[in-house]
Amino acid sequence: MDSKESGFQKRLGLFDATMLVTGTMIGSGIFIVSAETARDVGSGGWLLVAWLVAGLMTVFGALCYAELSGLMPQAGGQYVFLREAFSPLWGFLYGWTCFLVIQTGSIAAVAVAFAKFLGVIVPALGADPSLPTQADVQAGRAPALPAVVGFMPDLQLPPAPNRPAILFAATHVNWQVRLPLAAEPFFEMEHFVVTAGQGVAVLVILFLTLLNCRGVQEGKLVQNIMGVAKIAALIALIGVGLFVVSSPDAWNANSRDWWSGITTTQTFERTGGLLPGLLPVSAIALMVLGAALVGPLFSADAWNNITFTAGETVDAAKTLPRALMLGTSLVIVLYLAANTGFVLGLPVQGDLAKAELSERAAHAAAERAERAAAAGQAAEAQAARAEADRAARQAAFHRGIDQAKDDRVGTAVLELWSPRLGATLMALAIMISTFGCVNGMILMGARLYCVMAWDRLFFRGAGRLNRRGVPAVGLVLQGLWSVLLVFSGTYGQLLDYVIFAVLVFYALTVTGLFVLRRRQPNAHRPFRVPFYPVLPAVYVLLCSAVMIDLLIVKPMYTWPGLIIVVTGVPVYFLWRLLGKGAPQGN
Q: What CA–CA distance (Å, rounded) separates 186 from 556?
């Protein structure tokens, strides 16, 4: 072990490491991403195939990382793999992108998701303000809103009890950043708004950052509790979908159009228009599928973070490979089961017109129930509530998966079971899930920056361990940058932009497996990838195919992310200059 790693406390066993893998993979994505995927692929068969392909890619990648983590059980994980297989520059570019966007942006996004679903229970603490657009103001449909401090007055906005409390709003700031040859802005902000929900997200980040500064024991305790709770909640949702709300109506609606629905989507039409008349329908369908993998892949992302914690893992050379295999396999099985439950309970393609009729009927029945209850007419009130519940169930069913309200597919499934409790129960489940996800990403991310600092490629303080054996400075730096991203509101856009870059680093890391097999043929490997070299080659080819597909179908998801990565090149040479020496590695 490196003498610097000796300061780490070996506190993470197999169960702890597995909960870190599952806990960071399961956030809010599984409960909402299927709506966007369904809009892309348009049918149940393709929806399940998208999750299956993403799952296989995740497990294949985890098997490759398992060999690498056994070969090099060092703190820093993927950074070390890239450094040793290629050069310190590639390791730095990965770490730079992680700090700038991938890790911190994910922390910000998931913390805001926690606040968003808290807003389902306490609306004033939500994170989705609804402000008038500049076009509304210019057309006289809404008043101009001044910058204010304190709670926003009701200026033709939804009533205060039904919207997040806005603590500050500078409206119509119209900030834009454009890149050369780009038709759309790289970054655009019409309003600068601080909501109570953002405050909640910041408190979550700061609390978990300080908790993890106290030691890995405290961080793993939270992770284990939340990990078990979120797995139990996901299993409960799967049980409801498979055995409680599954219906012949949903099955008939989906089985009538099990595969051909993909040809009816806007994504299919847009993709076919790129090369009109040159591609067969099957080729266009595969291209649409490739683009649709973005959501499922990133709902299952962050499994690689466990490799950052090798310095604190007991018998890391054996424990990390096992945790990677157990954790990713468990999550992918749960994800496939959840989506099977979605397809059995809801039509993939919803009917918005029917849904809106049912929603109006539910609202009218609920109002009758309130009036009857106020008049002391208990029987009439009960009958009206039952009618409202039936209409609400119909509304959730008619919306289906692709038109689920706010993309909350998991909530729609629970509302089929209980219209009055479904949204609240799902909000609680997602709050547990996102809280644990943020904790895991905070705990693991700082270990990456610590090793970069040891290599003189990051702020020196980030490489110092406090008396509890954790990189407290790195944790604080990560937390502060995540907080800035929360207030900037850019984390969602930035994560979209780095999707391509993340796939590049995954493919490059697994390619490094071939390099290290050739360079170190006799090195001790506690775990070897099965079916080598076929399995890692298939993984690299799948990643490459998805990247090429994204370049064609969703170009705005590609080259902007590469620009973010490339900005790290001059920073790397600057840090080497300031560090007065070359970092470790090749």
A: 9
